[in-house]
Records
---
Amino acid sequence: MSSREQERAISEPIRNFTATLVNRSHSIFTDPMQSRDERAIWLARNVLPHEASLRAWLTKRPVAGLEIDDIIQETYARLSTLASVEGIRDPRSYMFRTAHSVLVTFIRKSRVISIRAFAQFEEEALVDDEPGPEAIAIDRDELTRLGRAIAELPPRIREVFVLRRVEGLSQREVAERLGLSENTVEKHMGGGLRRLADFLANGGRVAHAASRDETRGEEGAHAARDKRRD
Amino acid sequence: MQRETSDEIEAAAARWAARFDRAPLSADDEERFVRWKAGDSRRLGAFMRLRAVALYSERAQALGPGFDPETFDLGTCGRGDHVPERSLSRRQLMWLGGSAIAACAVGTVAMERVLRDKTYSTHLGEVRVVTLEDGSVITLNTSSAIRVRFETDRRVVVLDEGEALFDVAKDRARPFIVEAGATAVRAVGTSFAVKRLAAAPVEVLVREGVVEVTSPAATQPTRLNANMRMVATGHGNRARPTSVAAEAVVRETAWQEGRIAFEGETLDNAAKVFERYSDTRIIIEDPSIGNEEITGLFAANDPVSFARAAAASLDLKATVGPGEVRLAR
């Protein structure tokens, strides 16, 4: 096969794959809210606890042009659009294989790596590294960990989060209690969720951009990408 | 592959997750959400991840009204601490999948009076140690559930199902009472196990000290000393306590360390015991094999290793399949 033909042979499945992904995200849209939440709960129970160890695993397999955060987001996306998760007996392994597949997809598409290196990558045995202590956490520690994560939130966000989650008030009730607008409460919840996710799934690292948001008072600051990595 | 950074996506996803948390989406918002998601395959992933955290964080309610973020400290939480444990109600447990979660709080958090039963439970294959505020220690075996209710004049634990070992701290002012079905076991300071399995009579096994058992089967309360067992067999039959060899008591409580001990136990019975700890079934293909006897100490949640050991010891063949291991000649 000429290199041109090789490239075409590689990129064709990618086009089909991308089309499938787009279609699938439409299918999740037509699902009722409940099944979306059910999937989110499944992710919370079966995927989130392993994210830290997946990140560690990915750190050992760097790919030029693709960042770990991108892979993680893509992985969650794929797991969210599966028609069913009932058959998955080992979610952790499935999560790792999905992430690996994201890597492979990117490599094929980017055509950066030589064909030989690519073949090597494909053959790599998908051995699950020993589950780290995070993966074997017993339930009683989970609530403690959550409590600690909340305790680490910046003061204003924490105030909102504790009222919303520990006290169980609605966002509107929180707004009334604290004398804030509902939009402000919503914004703080967003910041809180982001930090909580970083803490729980990223081994406690808080994104720099998020910290900057706090002082600037706005979400979605265009953080410099080089500043984002520790 | 990307026009926007994962960080930008994360920020937008957080806005959406917060919107979802606030209230059900309006039709307009739904439309905007769909359009946003379609823009990049990573966006849905980032959103669902935060949505997962949002729903997961709802269990924070279990931290209780006494939760003070200023003084909440992971380091001082642990077994053996004499601090009250908070737990979720049974209904909340069911939503979260049935495993009990407890938190501990220190510092300025006040010890609150128990207004309702504290529930503790274990799922299949789990062994769990619970320390109560009086210093008593309860070890829960696989698939067990208890409810704890301490009152001024007595300490009550209801064994709803399963098996638990009670190491009771001495408190003459407050007898410790375990209720299992219609059977009640009363102790002052002692160590004993109670077993309440489906379709089986309640069993009480005493390791140390003295307990008094009341049950419909006996007209009077029955005293049990160390190394004694009582089976509360049905109504009308007088349940008699029997002596148990000290080694047998140790064997029958080996589950505390996640192990099962057999001494001349038939394979049939052994297979049944393993059923309590794991979904993997030991299937004995030849009925004659079922009567073969096995002795040894095994990991409770590893029926396959047991089957292999039994096969080696009894000259059988163990074949592992999905969810099962078969023993044959």
---
Amino acid sequence: MVILLILFSLILIIELVRFYLSINRVKKAKKELKKREQEQHYLNFLTTSAVEGGGSVAENFPRYLNYLKEAVNWNYHSIFRLDEATQLLPIRFTGYLPEWYMRELSTRVLVKVGDISIGRAIATKQPVTINAAIIDPRFKDVTSLVAQMKYQSLTCCPMIGRLRTYGGFCTYSEYKNIFTLHDTQFLLTCSNLFAAILENRLLQNYLKTVKHQIT
Amino acid sequence: MIVAAVLIIIVCGLIEFWLFKQRTKNKIQNTKIQVFNTRLEAIKALSYLPSSKRTFFREDLNEAVNSFFIQKKYTALTLIKILPNSTSSYLVLRYSLDQMAGVEDSLPNSLENGLISRIKTQQQEQKNLATNLTLTGESKWQVGVITPLFYQKSILGYLIFLSEEKSFPQEEEINFLSTVARIFILVLEKFYLNKVLTPDEQIKAGNVIW
């Protein structure tokens, strides 16, 4: 009888462990599902804004970055512009990054094509993910800045249009090893759409200027 | 002791029953996640098109349709483009999963006309319309979604998605189809700008410091 009771107790412990694991599985799946819905919602917002027109590049892109932060909750985002003459990448727009960071990165650090993560993304035309920025040798020149900003990992994607490469788009997180393959695919989709929207906007602006000059 | 044993058996039984329910719930959630992943795959493939260097619209459209059919639910897609300087002349291109090359026509068929007139009479030209097609007698298609291609206060045309599955699209599915339609609009805008501006003008416009 005692042996049976011990056996049943063991079975109960196993059942409780299974119960706990099942709760975690369902929670994780629920979180993933919510994230997918928010990503879909963001792409819907981005394409709606692109098609409705209105607003300048300087007004729209910070809005896109801020909304991205609210949708998927990574810490910061930034867009770098490619200066083809000097092959440098000054920072252009940021989402939730402080102004001093923009100043520091624009004046103290001259990011070149091929350098660190954003430069490599533009040079190779492929997304680049860094899982631990503090110890990555590519970040040795900006270690103090990275420590101050407290970001641990980042993903950079190039913004490639039909006519040229416009720059790159970076997403930063305060956690290490946070960006999965799915996240990289989503961010690459966003950067493709940013490039297309930017290019169409620049061409439309030029067309309006030409029409205005004719009239 | 017997009571304790019986209690343990009852508790284990309840936990097993609860686990069974949670497994079913988890399966449904995972299926939904897979559907979202497939949709993101389709949108990612489509996102390359507004920046593609192809010179002919049909080439981009064929690629767009191939990318769209990554999701398995909608197996036919029709693009109805309103020709410039006209409200009743159309270019109709019909694609289906087994006919990827696309069939060209100059007029919408009765099903397409029905959907267009419904969306016009409901004065919802900026919104999508999802409808159950079994009521119209079309035996093959169960559900149709028509999305107007609305760009800067004018309608460029319509995209019609047809499905043989009976499940009526929910809001997030309609949002996905709207996102696909808007990417088509970006592609149309690209060709329009390519036509209106010379290559030198385009390069000059693209080199502006933004």
